[in-house]
Each structure stands twice: as C-alpha cells, then as structure tokens.
Amino acid sequence: MFKFKDILVRWLVFSALFFGMTSSATASPTTVTYCINPSWVPYEMLRNGAHVGISAEYLEVIGELADIKFELVVTDSWQQSLEFVQTGKCMVLPMLAQSYAHRTFLSFTSPYFATPNVLVSDSYDVMYHGVDGLTHQLVAVDKNSYLAEYLARYYPDIRLQLMNSETEAVRELVRGNVDVMAGAMLSVNSELNRMNLQDMAITGYLEPMHLLRMGVNRAHAELVPVLNSAIERIPEATSVAIYKRWNNVKSQRQQDFRLGIMVVFCGGIVLATLIWRKNLLRRCSREMRHKQDEMENLQTVLLEKNRMLEFLSSHDTATNLYNRNFMLHRAEDEVSRFNRFHTAASLILFDFTSHSVRQMNSRPLINEEGIKELARICLSCVREVDIAGRWSSEQIIVLCPQTPISASKVLAERLKEAVETHQRPDIRELPFSIGLAALQEGETFADWYERASQALYLARRQHGGKVMIAET
Taking the model in full, what pTM does it have? Predict the structure, then answer.
C-alpha cells in the first residue's frame, strides 16, 4: 500500500511539471508582418528571398527585446512596399525617414540609426558646404526619398532632377546629364563601389541627418510604444558592431605625382616651418570651434523654425485654435476609433451669428479681436482632452473624445455661461447658438456634423443663446 501511494504521488508531480512545461512552451511571441525596400543596399535588401542588411540585424535585436516575431512580406519594389503597408498587407516598414507624405498612414518610432546625406560629383577640386553651395548645379535625387521631399519643400530654388532610384541618379551623373547627385552616404558609396567608379567622389554633406526609424500602419499604432521601449534598450555596442559590419565607405584619391615632388622639395625646409605649422594648427582649431558653434546655433534656429512651421500648418493664425484641415483629420481619427472600440464621442458647434443676421446677409456683428476673445473663452472652458478649432469665420467646433453627450452638454452650458457673463458688453450681447451631437454607429464625420448642424439650426430659431442636442 505504501509503495502504491508513493508511485501515485510521483506520477502527479511528473504530470504537473510536464503540463506546466508544455503550456509555457506553447506560448509564442507576437507576430508582426513587415515589408522592406528590396534594393536599398546596404540598409536593407533581398538576397535569395531573405532579408539582409542593417535593418535585418536591428529587427533581430528589437524582436528579441520586445518578444516580437517579425515576418517578411516580399515585395518587388519600394513603391509596392508603401502600397502594402498602406493597405494593411503588412504592418511595419522597418527602416525609413519620417516624412510629411507618409504621416497620413504611418506612425513612427524613435530613430535608431542615423547616417548623413552626401553630394557626389566627378570634380575633386570643388567641395560643397551644404545646400547653399548648390547655386546653379542640376542635382539628381531619388524621388521616393525623404531628401527629395525636404529639398523641394525648403529649397525650392534648387534645380532638382527626380530619379526612380539612387542607382539611376548615379548613372545619370556618370553620363554627364546632371552635375551632382545626392543620397544617403552608405547606399551611395555601395553603388560607387559596385560600379567601380574611380572618378566619382563625395564632395559635400547635406543637412539634415538621415534619421531612420520604423513606420507602423496607423491601425496598429499600439506597437509604437512597444517598439520604442525595445529601441531604447538596444546596447550601444550592438549598434556599433552593426555599423562596422555594413560600413562600406572607402577613401578614393587620384594619383598625383606632384605630391611626391612637393614632399622632396619640402624636406629641406621642415625644421624652419615647424613653429609656423604649430601656430597655423592652433588658428585652424580655433576657427573650427567657431564654425562648429555657428553650426549648432543655425541648427537651433532651424529647429525652432520647423516647430513654428508645424504649428502654423495646423492652427488658425487669428485665434491660435486648430484650423479646419487639422480638425477634419482628428474627427476622422475619432470616427475610426469609435468604429473599433465603441467609445463615446461628442461634437459641439458654437456659432456666433444669429438666425436673423444670416437672413439679412449683413456684415458680422463681431470683429477679429472679438473672435480672438471668443477663442480664449472657449479654450478656458474646454478640458485638456477636448480639441477646439475654428471651423469657419463665424463658427468654432469642439471635438470631445471619449465623452458622452451628457458631459458635453455640461461643457456647452459652461461655455454659454462664460459668454453671457463676460465683462465685455460686445461679447455678452453677441447672438450665439450651440448645437451638440453624439457620434452614432455607422456614421461618417459628415453625418455626425450634419446632425450637430441641425441642432444648431434649431437653437438659432429660438433667437440664440440656446444649447440644443441633436436627435438620435
């Protein structure tokens, strides 16, 4: 009897261990599909159907850190990869620069690899110091690259020749059809080495740096913080090792026999020139530090200007509220979020022209300064999560994410009270109306806005100063 109990206990312990190991073994990492640029050497490429290059090694490291299994979706070209990620056939692009064109359908991670942009020409006598040195030269650049978008946007006076790829741009330079070609340093050098172009050389560098990051389809934006967490944990030694393996930059110089003659000639006067050389090096060092300080100041100014441009592109210049275009994009995002997660959302239309004024087709009752004051009142009443924008010259729209209609009505009443009790008489006496609508199942933004407009119309019919909720 004792032996039977002992055997039974051992069998139960063994079963528990076996099934525990089996369940842990069946747990598998998250699978994420991705597409690449199949011919962007050495950043990423296809070799015998396999993904190799810098991005391939980073994906392996990031996959281990984030417990993600990356699965390649093979494409024929970079253009097809962009189409696949836009349509959802793959979820991620592992290596690209953040651009305005791609922001419409991609969310971007933090950058994990940086490389400079370079200028290549067949002249060793000319060095280009940035974009300003390109006064009349014809510059070839890959039309699908971020550099092409950057130069076209911020340097419209530069003569650009848009090519289908960096390889085609190099070939146009060899044929003499363009003066200079621009591209990412590693890929340009790889192309020069592959074509054995001894007469071509890097003759300048271009700002900004090529900051490469991962682009995630907006439908899978929840991956971005996971990937960012993994990117932050990539060891510096690993990044250096990857760069060393794929760095193909080589120094190429033409043979010049005059150098040997000069060395022989200068040998006799080396001792006499040592002091002069030392002073010259000191002066050059001071000048280089001065130039570096100037470059840092210019980069700071450029960054500030970029921030200002980004602000102006999404805000109304008169009121500092978001503009109509920005509000359209955010409203469409809110409709998409509602369709996925069924979270409540409300829309508030604040119109400061009465029904009678519209019928008389007279001039607005309030000037731009009054509209600015109304915008300040609106911003003081809304919550941090709410999004307020100027929809038209006489209408302000407020988007309330994750907010039921009852809470939005409280916000609208607060806005109404703030206007009616304002210290300025022209604000207190201003005829206004407020219409509300909750987002419903199957509605587009146009439907949602139309119902809010109907509620606004009913509020106007009651001679202003009313808050009306659209019928469901």
Answer: 0.47
